[in-house]
């Protein structure tokens, strides 16, 4: 098997190779017909233009399927490697043996025993004494809380007071947070975020409570059952008080689709559990229907 770098044997090359094999106590007939001659490039071999990365089969499949992974980290953070589903620590590991970065190297499975004898030039482009090793790790979500806590959404009347640089789109968070896409999505869902003007926000607790109280009072005023909450009427009635995207977000959080058209089922147990963490006494006095006992919903 020949390549663009393969060359026929010259007499002096043959003699030199045979002498080397004799010293190594090897027989030419026991070796593959391709001889690869290693040359070192004339340029600087010890440079920082490349880093060697050791990966497992799972990461290799990700490279082959997606063609891209992400390295994330601020100046004060250790770098991590992220795929769409997992996060890995990047650890620099030293080795006592030199690792060579080569060009046009033939591996065993690319050479056949029946191929004619030939030589191939292999050029060493770099010499390394360390490499990057990856180990699975948990996502670093502390940074996510820090960024979103800078400007919780308190209502449209407060939006002029803040700095726009403290607001982030989903793409910006994905680039900055040391987590995979799936891990970030799960964290945002657990944080009960809302999207305002394409920015990811958390709701201020007092504002969250006020909006929810409006919704519950509207249900009471219209004598709706909790499994027959009219979505369209709720939005149209409260839109003068609350931005529509906030109402829609809380509907997604606290309701699920009803079998009846245009109606939703209010998830009372979810309301109870959320406000138990922050202010159960407020919810018990202001929002919970008096005739219903919620202790069995825990």
UniProtKB/TrEMBL annotation:
GO terms for cellular component: chromatin; chromosome, centromeric region; Ctf18 RFC-like complex. One of its GO terms (biological process) is maintenance of mitotic sister chromatid cohesion. The keyword RNA-binding does not apply. InterPro entries: Dcc1 (IPR019128). Keywords: DNA replication. The keyword Calcium does not apply. Belongs to the DCC1 family. This is Sister chromatid cohesion protein DCC1.
């Amino acid at each position: 098997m020949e390549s663009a770098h393969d060359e026929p044997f010259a007499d002096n090359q043959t003699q030199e190779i045979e002498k080397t094999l004799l010293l190594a106590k090897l027989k030419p007939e026991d070796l593959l017909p391709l001889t690869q001659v290693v040359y070192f490039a004339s340029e600087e071999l010890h440079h920082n233009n490349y880093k060697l990365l050791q990966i497992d089969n799972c990461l290799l499949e990700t490279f082959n399927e997606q063609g891209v992974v992400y390295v994330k980290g601020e100046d004060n953070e250790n770098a991590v490697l992220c795929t769409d589903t997992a996060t890995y620590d990047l650890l620099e590991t030293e080795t006592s043996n030199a690792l060579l970065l080569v060009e046009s190297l033939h591996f065993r499975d690319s050479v056949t025993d029946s191929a004619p004898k030939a030589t191939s030039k292999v050029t060493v482009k770099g010499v390394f004494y360390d490499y990057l090793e990856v180990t699975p790790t948990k996502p670093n979500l502390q940074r996510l809380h820090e960024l979103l806590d800078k400007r919780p959404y308190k209502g449209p009347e407060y939006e002029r007071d803040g700095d726009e640089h403290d607001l982030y789109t989903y793409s910006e968070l994905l680039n900055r947070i040391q987590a995979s896409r799936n891990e970030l999505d799960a964290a945002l869902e657990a944080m009960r975020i809302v999207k305002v003007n394409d920015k990811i926000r958390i709701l201020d607790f007092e504002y969250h409570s006020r909006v929810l109280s409006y919704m519950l009072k509207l249900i009471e005023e219209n004598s709706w059952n909790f499994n027959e909450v009219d979505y369209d009427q709720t939005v149209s009635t409260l839109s003068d008080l609350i931005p529509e995207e906030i109402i829609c977000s809380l509907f997604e959080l606290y309701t699920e689709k009803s079998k009846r058209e245009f109606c939703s089922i209010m998830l009372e147990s979810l309301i109870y559990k959320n406000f138990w963490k922050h202010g159960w006494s407020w919810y018990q006095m202001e929002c919970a229907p008096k005739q219903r006992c919620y202790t069995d919903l825990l």
